[in-house]
Amino acid sequence: MRWSDLIENIMQANGGTASLNLLYARAGEYRQLPSGDWRKTLRGVLYRDVKQGRFVKVGLGVYALPGAVQQQESAYQYALRGEPVQNYLRRQSEVHSIIQGMLVEIGNFLDYHTYTADPNRTFDGKRLGDLCRLRQIPDFTYPDMKKRVARCDVIWFSRSAHPFPKYVFEVEATTDFQNSMLKMYELREFETQLVLVASEAKYHLYEQRLSQEPFASIRDKFRFRSFELVAKFYFNCVEHYELRSDFLQ
Question: Is the pLDDT score of 71 beyond 80?
Answer without folding.
Answer: no
